[in-house]
Design brief:
The chain is an alpha+beta fold and 329 residues long. It folds into three domains: 85 residues, Orthogonal Bundle (Arc Repressor Mutant, subunit A), CATH 1.10.10; 78 residues, no CATH class; 141 residues, Trna Endonuclease, Chain: A, domain 1. The chain contains seven helices and 21 strands. The strands form seven sheets. Strands 14-15-16-17-18-19 form a six-stranded mixed beta sheet, with helices on both faces. Strands 6-5-9-10 form a four-stranded antiparallel beta sheet, with no helix packed on it.
Length: 329
């Protein structure tokens, strides 16, 4: 389970916390599409789709979820908002029309009443070609397929994709259960911890002469990369990219290292749980990624806990601190 809080995720949770929105609810557009606009406007491209983000936060019990409705996704093209239709049970055509048909009870012949009427006004069954008395017939309402001619008492329910026009039986379509989302009991405190840890790192760098931007983007190659924090010390051109995670894993540390390397910056990662996975620790030490832990008293410490032991983090954070101190002396 991922425990990372990307800049986009923190933005959308901040909006929920300050009351700008009471909860994140699905919106069904006129063409049947499903969206969470209050979420989508905060997320970055690297965050993925809004539904997956909300489900991840609910799985981690940061948000609760409450049932709203169902939507169906096309197995062919992946578009959501499939619409209900009916099809012929024999050939699958949607071109079915409900009609009144006359049935010859004796032979089962079934046809519109006008096909039973002979020239002399008597009834003749078009199926068995025998004369038919009124008491030998029954009027039925049937769904008649205009493609293959088959008829049935009822048509088969189906779902049609608005994008590619594919038609599927409901059991073949991908079912989405849509929820609204709001803060769980401890969700607000979780958010406060992440934001406080980010602020603690920003203040530490600012105290050491760095100009700091939080919730920003970096990139000198035309590609913008969202980051929790970016600091730059103008005199010596020292740069730092910072990230905040509850329990950093290997992917989180590697991603931070790649972003920092792309802008020739140091990297510092704050663990708000004080814990880091062993693979993440190994990568951090090998690639000089600084790892610190956020304490309940609001301070940052150079120690953290792995699955088996407590270690001092890689020396990047120490070199960063001592480097800045030398500059200030």
């Amino acid at each position: 389970m991922k425990r990372m809080a990307t800049p986009g995720v923190l933005r959308l949770l901040e909006e929920l916390a300050d009351g700008t929105v009471e909860e994140f609810s699905p919106v069904i557009t006129e063409d049947g599409g499903v969206s969470y606009p209050d979420v989508e406007r905060h997320l970055d491209a690297c965050d993925g789709d809004s539904y997956s983000v909300l489900e991840s936060l609910a799985h981690r019990e940061i948000l609760y979820r409450e049932f709203q409705e169902k939507a169906y996704v096309c197995p062919e093209c992946g578009a959501d908002g499939m619409t209900y239709t009916t099809i012929c049970a024999e050939c699958g055509s949607q071109n079915t029309i409900e009609q009144e048909l006359l049935e010859h009870v004796e032979c089962g012949g079934l046809a519109p009443e006008k096909q039973f009427q002979a020239a002399d006004g008597e009834y003749v069954c078009p199926e068995c070609e025998l004369a038919v008395r009124p008491e030998q017939t029954e009027m039925l309402r049937q769904h008649v397929c205009q493609t293959c001619g088959a008829s049935a008492a009822g048509s088969v329910g189906a779902l049609q994709c608005r994008e590619c026009a594919s038609v599927y039986e409901p059991r073949e379509a991908i079912e989405w259960v849509l929820y609204s989302y709001g803060f769980e009991q401890h969700g607000r405190q979780w958010l406060t911890t992440q934001l406080s840890a980010r602020q603690a790192l920003a203040e530490m760098l600012a105290d050491r002469g760095f100009a700091v931007d939080t919730d920003t983007v970096v990139g000198n190659d035309g590609r913008e990369r969202p980051v929790h924090l970016y600091g730059e010390e103008e005199l010596l051109g020292d740069r730092v990219v910072g990230a905040v995670h509850e329990r950093p894993d290997h992917d989180a540390v590697e991603r931070l290292h790649e972003i920092a390397a792309a802008v020739d910056a140091r990297s510092v990662l704050v663990s708000t749980s004080g814990t880091i996975t062993e693979r993440a620790e190994e990568f951090a030490q090998t690639h000089s990624v600084g790892v610190v832990s956020y304490q309940q008293d609001g301070t940052l410490q150079r120690e953290y806990t792995t699955a088996t032991r407590t270690e001092r983090p890689s020396s990047v954070f120490e070199r960063l601190t001592s480097s800045v101190r030398r500059q200030l002396n």
